[in-house]
Each structure stands twice: as structure tokens, then as C-alpha cells.
Amino acid sequence: MANSQRSRIDPRNGFCNANSTFYSKRKPLALPSNDSLDVTTFISSQTHRGKTAFIDAATDHRISFSDLWRAVDRVANCLHHDVGIQRGDVVLVLSPNSISIPIVCLSVMSLGAVVTTANPVNTAGEISRQIADSNPKLAFTTLELASKLAGSGISILLERVVDTLCAPGGLKVVGILSEMMKKEPRGQEVIRNRVNIDDTAILLYSSGTTGRSKGVNSSHGNLIAHVARYITEPFEQPQQTFICTVPFFHTFGLLNFVLATLALGSTVVILPRFNLGEMMAAAEKYRATTLILVPPVLVTMINRADEIMAKYDVSFVRTVRCGGAPLSKEVTEGFMKKYPTVDVYQGYALTESNGAGASIDSVEESQRYGAVGLLSCGVEARIVDPNTGRVMGLNQTGELWLKGPSIAKGDLCYIDDDGFLFIVDRLKELIKYKGYQVPPAELEALLLNHPDILDAAVIPFPDKEAGQYPMAYVARKSGSNLCEKKVIDYISKQVAPYKKIRKVAFIDSIPKTPSGKTLRKDLIKFAISKL
């Protein structure tokens, strides 16, 4: 940025009148100059004093940083020489949260191969569609989930030896992760310098608004930039202990609490899934300093605060980091009243932006209730009217456009006089159920396949516990006696639990624009008016 342009930037909010662009108020992003660098090598080269990298709360199994990197090298060696994984190959990870996921992901990326993750609760049909799109050469999975890959023809890497004894038929098992972690390299070094920062490192699936989930390619350079943000301006003091229940198949879990924490030397306590009692027990046992949550969990903790405080000692918890969906001012204030010694830090990012966006990074910033934070370091932003394309200014609502090392455009928002970003609405009306993204178009396509349904529209319906859940408006064919239960059951058999329709209303016709676009906003207003 030229000095003359920099001088026009308002230091209070980072806004430049000359080009209507918001610039981050945080420290400049320091990136490595080496173009032949993979993200695994970049993370492993960072210096810190951390000792324990991950703890499995279910088994109390721990892995130190030194043992983790030793395992990564051994697994990468085996994947390359024994399984034949090459640069550019795709490896599918289908597993609940575990210590195995960081080892597999870091090993795969060190080879220049690509990691793609699938939600473990997805149906076999949903997973098969992702397989058809991403074309993986290998899949890492567990015994409990292996049946979802039966018939796929993909080579399988199982977690443990015992899994092979009970694995379903039709699987081609080519390796055991626990055995690879013990195998000494055969003197053949894995060549990492073939990897370029522009090579794809991960392929995460973001819930689209025009149909099924779509793959988002992220390069090694994108991920290095993401990790470098936390090194440049750490979101916590080093060597903190995090309790992580957010899924590792999602960008929130994978990028922040598999990659970034490793570079900082922090400890991540892993829970395979969210359970309030198990989470609080783990926080007490491991003296956790930070909880990683989605907004519905904060609501639950507010409602059950007396029970939690009576049963668990959570005096070491100082911070809650919240993401996955906007956090309202009311929920933030309610949480602070129940837990006055805990600060709530919110963040905002997209799968497409690889964690870049905005975040709350200090107690002072957390007092700006309702804001998702200041722009991430290295990020530039514009607020644009989505209808006219006109660039907006301070306190004006429009679509957020971001520019940086890894960026996409996103939601309706505004930036205030002090440079804080506020999310106003989901631009494309994605439904956010307990932090999970549910695309209405996917459910609508399934509904239209029902022989008794003439037309359908799916909208987000507000819920205190879940945030939102999918509600369907259905226009039945003439003479049909289709009921709500049959519609709900029909969809439940075809989608993951978090995508299920939980409310149905029947309507004569679905309101549409003259061009045929569904007027979901009108249906949302009508549904809310009935509350």
C-alpha cells in the first residue's frame, strides 16, 4: 500500500475514503517468502514451549508435540511408499473427532496430497456424492463408520488393527494407522520440497445455497496465511488448554484447533462429540482455560448455569471462543451474567475464506456486544450493495467482500465507526442448526421428488436451543392427504440428522417472484408472525 493511500486511512476504523475500502487495524501479516513450502512443514517449524499437543478426553490418551511430529513423518512415509499416495491425490477423512485426524491430515498434506473431510453423521448416499465429486484415492475411517464406504471401491486406511477383524465385507484395507505410527522409516525420505504453496491442501465442503454442498479448494499458501495470523497476533497466550467439541471435519475445528494451536504450542482436549456433562467434566479434569463453542451451547449453559456451577469446578476457564453462527447481544449478556469471570470472544469466517474474516481478541473488544470483531490481520474489506454493486461506507449495510491471502464474499453486514464488523443477515438464507449449515435448496430438491408434493420451500425457523431449524412449506398435489409426519419421515431417511425438517406447514402455492424465484423472506415473515 502506498504511503499516500495509507495516510488517508482513518486509524479509528481503518476506512479509506479514497477507495471505500476498510483495512485491518491489526498488525501486518508476516508470511514466509519460500514458495516451495507445505503447511505441515511451516507449522512444525514454529518454536514454542508447549509439551502436550492433544488429549483424548474419552480415553485420557495424550500425545506430545515431539511424538506427534514423529508420527506424522512415519505415517507420511508409509502413505507414500506403501500405499502410493502422491502429490495431488485426494484422501477422504471420515471419522469422529480424535487424535488420529491431525496425524492423518498433516501427513497427507506434507506429501502434497489433498485432504477432504466428510461429516460422520452423513448418510452413505451423501458421502457417495462427495466421493463422486472429489474422487479420493484413499479413505481414512473407523470401524464404526466403515460400512458407509462399502461398495465405494476406495482403498481404506483403518485406525486400529482390531478394526480389520470386524470390518464389513467389500472393503479394500491397505493400511492400519496405529501400525504406521510405529514403523521406522526405511531410509527413504519423504520429499516435501516438491510441494508449492499454490498446490491444493484441503478440499472442504461448504453448504451451498443453490443445491448440494460444494467443494472449496484451499492451497498450502491459504493455510499458511491462516496459521500466520495467529502467530502474528495470537488469539490466546501460548500454552493454553482448549476444550474442543466442534467437529474437525469443519473449517472451524480443522483450521483453528488442529492447525493453528499446533503452531502456538497450546493443548487441545478432544471430545468426539458434544455432551454438556462430558465437556464440563473435561474442563474440570484438565483445568481448561478456553472452551470452543457454538451459540446454541452458550444458550444451554445459560439455562443450566446453576446445575453446572454446583456440579463442576470450572474456575480455570477464562474464555469462551464462539463461532459457527452469529452470537446475539442478548445471549452474550446473559452468559456474562451467569459466568462473570469468563470472557466471550466471537469470531466470523467462511469455509471459502479459510478462517479469515473478523474476530474478538481481547477483553476490551469483547465489550462490543453483538460485534464479531475487528477485521483479521492482512484482510481488506468492502461493503457492497448486493443489488446495485455500489460500494458503501461506515455504518451502511451491504454484502461483505473480503480481500486477502484466501478470501470469498459472504453475508449482509456493516462496519461501525470503530471498525467492528456486525453481521445483519445470512445473505443467501442458509439455515444454521446448532452451528451446522443446512442449504434449503438441497432439502427442496428432495421434497420435490415426493409423488404427492407439487411445490415446496424450506426456510429457517427460529429456535432458542438450536438457533434455527429447517421448516418446510409444502403445496400438495390435488387429492393428496399427505401429513406433516410423512413429510418429516420422508426427508429424515435421506439426510444427516442435523438437516432434518422439524416443522411442516401446508400452503396452496409457494410465493415466487415474476422470474420464478422463491420468496423465502415472505415465508419467513409469515412463519414468525404465527409465533
From TrEMBL:
CDD domains: 4CL. Residues 442-517 form the AMP-binding enzyme C-terminal domain. InterPro entries: AMP-bd_C, AMP-binding_CS, AMP-dep_synth/lig_dom. The chain crosses the membrane at residues 248-271. Its cofactor is Mg(2+). Residues 46-410 form the AMP-dependent synthetase/ligase domain. GO terms for cellular component: peroxisome. This is AMP-dependent synthetase/ligase.
